Every structure is written in structure tokens, then in C-alpha cells.
UniProtKB/TrEMBL annotation:
Entry GO CC: cytoplasm
Listed InterPro entries: PRX5-like, Redoxin, Thioredoxin-like_sf, Thioredoxin_domain
Keyword Zinc: no
Assigned keywords, A-Z: Antioxidant, Oxidoreductase, Peroxidase, Redox-active center
Native organism: Paraburkholderia panacisoli
The family this protein is said to belong to: Belongs to the peroxiredoxin family. Prx5 subfamily.
Protein name according to UniProt: Glutathione-dependent peroxiredoxin
E.C. number(s) listed in UniProt: 1.11.1.27
Reaction equations catalysed: a hydroperoxide + 2 glutathione = an alcohol + glutathione disulfide + H2O
Molecular function terms from GO: thioredoxin peroxidase activity
Function per UniProt: Thiol-specific peroxidase that catalyzes the reduction of hydrogen peroxide and organic hydroperoxides to water and alcohols, respectively. Plays a role in cell protection against oxidative stress by detoxifying peroxides.
Enzyme active site: C55 (cysteine sulfenic acid (-soh) intermediate)
Residues covered by the Thioredoxin domain: 2-167
Superkingdom per UniProt: Bacteria
Length: 167
């Protein structure tokens, strides 16, 4: 499992882009993790799945609600990473009113999640390979803090816990 002090793995994530802009077309676009994190300070949080109960009721809403406070503490971007495709992540972002606050990053094949060592097998629950619930602070591509939840818990990866870490 990735640890504080480690560089993020070389991986690609996907984001559903709503508005065409330089270098991005409307729809799913790929982003190199190392390029996107270079020179930036981020919070990256991972969760088991889009539209699932805790993820939709608590995890994403907390980061949307506290996005400005995190930015005031020097965070450039907030990423939500889930083992879903970019279409699902885009729809979930719209549902969660995340635009301009949290980037909804798709890891459809779980390549990034596996490279982090943070995958979990939820096949018995009909979900396949998914991400564990976690949050990390990343500075210039290097993990500074990593909070991984115990199975079934939601206590250390929420926005308030990360705010406390940064304060």
C-alpha cells in the first residue's frame, strides 16, 4: 500500500468534461496523474462507488461543502476517485453539485487504485473490485498524509478530518 512520502503511481484517470476547453473535448477525457499533480497541492479521496449510500450522503457532500475551506488552507484541487466509468462519475458529479469544487475522476479498470494498493474485492456484494475508502493530501505528486478507513467505517477520510490535518 502507498505510504506517506511515496510518489503517486504513473497512471491515467478519466474525467467527464462538461464544457469544451483547450485540450479537452466534451465527454470523457484522460488525464495523466503525475502531470496533473505536478506543482499542485491536492486532496484525493477514494471511495467504493458512485451513487452508493455513504459515498453519496456523506463523503462527497462533505468535500463539496468544505471545498473553499480546503482551498483557503492551500489545496489547489480536490479529486474524488472511484472505480466507475467517466460517464457515471460525470452524472454523479452533477447530482452532487460538485462542479468547480471536486473533480470526479474515474478509474474504471481500477488501475490507479491497484497501483496504490487500495483495492478491495466486493464481488460477493455484486460490485467487483472497488476502492477502499481513503483520503490523502498530495504535494507535487508526493503523498504527505494518508487516511485509510477500516472496513465499513467512515471516520478518518471525511473532509473534516482532512481539514484538521491541514490546520
Amino acid at each position: 500500500m502507498i505510504q506517506a512520502g511515496d510518489k503517486l503511481p504513473d497512471a491515467t484517470l478519466f474525467e467527464f468534461v462538461e464544457d469544451e476547453r483547450a485540450g479537452c473535448t466534451i465527454g470523457p477525457n484522460s488525464f495523466d496523474v503525475r502531470e496533473q499533480t505536478a506543482g499542485k497541492r491536492l486532496v484525493i479521496f477514494g471511495l467504493p462507488g458512485a451513487f452508493t449510500p455513504t459515498c453519496s450522503a456523506k463523503h462527497v457532500p462533505g468535500y463539496v461543502e468544505h471545498a473553499e475551506q480546503l482551498r483557503a488552507l492551500g489545496i489547489d484541487e480536490i479529486w474524488c476517485v472511484s472505480v466507475n466509468d467517466a460517464f457515471v462519475m460525470g452524472a454523479w458529479g452533477r447530482d452532487q453539485h460538485a462542479s468547480g469544487k471536486v473533480r470526479m475522476m474515474a478509474d474504471g479498470s481500477a488501475a490507479f487504485t491497484r497501483a496504490l494498493g487500495l483495492e478491495q474485492d466486493l464481488s460477493a456484494r455484486g460490485m467487483g473490485i472497488r476502492s477502499q475508502r481513503y483520503a490523502m493530501v498530495v504535494d507535487d505528486g508526493v503523498v504527505k498524509t494518508l487516511n485509510v478507513e477500516a472496513a465499513g467505517k467512515f471516520e478518518v477520510s471525511d473532509a473534516k478530518s482532512i481539514l484538521a490535518t491541514l490546520s
